[in-house]
Specification:
Elements (H helix, E strand, L loop, with lengths): L4 E4 L4 H13 L5 E5 L5 H5 L3 E3 L5 H11 L3 E4 L5 H6 L1 H20 L5 E3 L2 E2 L23 H20 L3 E2 L1 E3 L1 E3 L12 H11 L2 E4 L7 E5 H13 L11 E2 L3 E3 L1 H11 L4 E4 L4 H6 L8 H7 L7 H14 L1
Parallel strand pairs: 1-2, 1-4, 2-3, 4-5, 5-7, 6-8, 8-12, 9-11, 10-14
Antiparallel strand pairs: 11-13
Bound molecules: serine.
Serine (SER) binds next to loops.
């Protein structure tokens, strides 16, 4: 059943595909895209759009009242690499936007929230392999600190005020419709563009830096499956571990070479290497599989083929 829904940060990497997916699944008129700037024609032309700053409570409230919004997806955030350069701006955006939607739900103006967390909630002390749902976290990045704080506040608002907020810890997301911006896992998207345009890629992470990753179609499906569950099924109100595959830059390069044999990879690690080194290599997502039957579909080979094919046609 369709419910009036607002997507904050709809022009970003996840927001674009989430908006398009929700519009094609439900009535497009009821899926309101919003962002601080305009996005791609497919997004702007396919349904309602509002210019909206996610840190402005009154502006969000106006849109919510106008469209009688019931559900909000808060996809506006500053990612890990940019956040290291602008710590206070990152903290203000990532936290104030979250408080805005949590408080709107607390006041009964909306009934359900999706807010993304990240593998960045984990830190250098966290077990790196098959990182459990509950473990030592101690994030060491500005972005990770904001996401961990956000998780604590989501759980608090759920327990204290009954707010129906749901979340997953996304791994690095690989997509072809919209580029990511300012993340540490962005290399795994840039590489496909450069492979097709130049036949080579100079990677900002070192060759053996293994990180958890996911193809966007799986990430969107996970998000929708979690949001469609009855509230009782959602036993984790901080954020669910979510996984599909893990690979290093050299493994991704090998996978691309199977499709483009002449593809060349070089390595020039920069400040993002330290961020990547603080994150897990692989994630245990048993809880998501138990609570809402999560099952990934895309492995590295399928992701590589889908990325190259879709980018060639776009
Ligand atoms: N992909 C994000 C980043 O690299 C992690 O959530 O910042």
């Amino acid at each position: 059943m369709s419910k009036p829904t607002l997507i904050l940060g709809a022009c970003g990497q996840i927001g674009t595909e989430l908006t398009l997916a929700l519009r094609s699944a439900y009535s497009a008129e009821e899926i309101i895209a919003s962002d601080i700037r305009e996005g791609k024609p497919a997004l702007m032309d396919g349904g309602p759009f509002e210019l909206l700053d996610a840190t402005n409570y009154e502006a969000i409230e106006d849109v919510i009242m106008h469209y009688e919004i019931e559900e909000v997806y808060l996809m506006a955030a500053m990612l890990s690499a940019t956040a290291e350069k602008f710590p206070m701006r990152a903290w203000n955006l990532n936290m104030n936007a979250l408080f805005n939607v949590l408080n709107l739900a607390k006041e009964g103006k909306i009934s359900k929230i999706f807010w993304p967390s990240s593998i960045a909630v984990f830190g250098p002390d966290t077990p790196k392999l098959h990182t459990p749902q509950q473990t030592i976290m101690n994030p060491s990045t500005v972005y990770g600190i904001s996401k961990q704080s956000g998780e604590r506040w989501c759980e608090y608002y759920h327990k204290k005020f009954g707010v129906d907020v749901r979340s997953v810890r996304y791994p690095g997301l690989i997509s072809w419709k919209t580029l990511p911006g300012g993340g540490t896992t962005d290399y795994a998207v840039e590489i496909f563009h450069d492979a097709l345009e130049k036949g080579s890629y100079d990677c900002f992470l070192s060759e053996n830096t293994q990180l958890p990753m996911m193809y966007m179609d799986d990430a969107i499906r996970a998000t929708r499956e979690l949001m469609e569950r009855t509230p009782e099924d959602v036993t984790v109100r901080s954020s669910y571990n979510l996984a599909s595959m893990s690979f290093s830059p050299s493994e991704l390069a090998e996978s691309i070479q199977k499709e483009i044999p002449d593809f060349k990879m070089s390595y020039a690690p920069d400040f993002r290497q330290a961020i990547a080194d603080s994150w897990p290599k692989s994630i245990d997502d048993t809880k998501a599989r138990e609570d809402w039957d999560w099952q990934p579909e895309f492995d590295l080979k399928a992701t590589t083929k889908a990325m190259l094919q879709n980018l060639k046609q776009s």
